[in-house]
Design goal:
single chain; Four Helix Bundle (Hemerythrin (Met), subunit A)
Length: about 160
C-alpha cells in the first residue's frame, strides 16, 4: 500500500497537469487543423495559387497545442523541485489545477476554431481578396484560448512564489 501513497506526491500532480495540458490542447489542435485541412484541400485541387491563404487558415487551430506545450514547460521548469521530486503536495496540486484551463479550453477552442477555419475556406474559394475576414472570424475563437493560457500562466507564477 505504500506504493499507492507514493503516487500522490506534489511532483506526480504537477507532471500530470503538464501532461494533460499537452495532451488535450494537442488533441484539439490536431482535430482543428485536420478539419481545416480537409476543407482546404479541395480548394487547392482547383486553384493551387491559393495555398498561402489556405495554409494560414489551416494553421490557426494549431496554436492551442503550442499553448499546452508552453504551460507544460512552465510547470516543469518554473520550480526545480518539480524535476527533482521534492515538490510539496499543495504546490503540485496547484500546478495540476493551473494546467486545466489551457488543457480544457485549448481542446474545445481548437476544434471550434478548426470548424470556423473550414467554413472560412469558402471565402478563400469564392472571394480570395476577402480571405482575411475568415482569418478574423477564426481569430475570435483564439481569444478564449489566449485567456485560458493567461490564467494558467498567472497561476503557475503564483504557485512558483508560494512558500514551501
Amino acid at each position: 500500500m505504500e506504493w499507492i501513497s507514493s503516487l500522490f506526491t506534489g511532483t506526480s500532480f504537477a507532471v500530470l497537469g503538464a501532461a494533460l495540458a499537452v495532451i488535450f490542447a494537442g488533441m484539439g489542435s490536431s482535430k482543428g487543423v485536420g478539419l481545416a485541412g480537409e476543407a482546404g484541400t479541395g480548394i487547392l485541387t482547383e486553384d493551387p495559387t491559393k495555398f498561402g491563404k489556405v495554409l494560414l487558415l489551416q494553421a490557426l487551430p494549431g496554436t492551442q497545442g503550442i499553448y499546452g506545450l508552453l504551460v507544460a514547460f512552465l510547470i516543469l521548469f518554473s520550480n526545480g523541485a518539480v524535476l527533482d521530486g521534492t515538490l510539496p503536495l499543495v504546490q503540485g496540486v496547484a500546478y495540476f489545477f493551473a494546467a486545466l484551463p489551457t488543457a480544457i479550453v485549448g481542446y474545445y477552442s481548437a476544434i471550434r476554431q478548426g470548424r470556423v477555419a473550414a467554413a472560412a475556406m469558402n471565402i478563400v474559394a469564392k472571394k480570395p481578396d476577402d480571405a482575411m475576414k475568415g482569418v478574423i472570424s477564426a481569430g475570435l475563437v483564439e481569444t478564449y484560448a489566449v485567456l485560458a493560457l493567461l490564467i494558467s500562466v498567472l497561476v503557475i507564477f503564483g504557485v512558483g512564489s508560494m512558500a514551501a
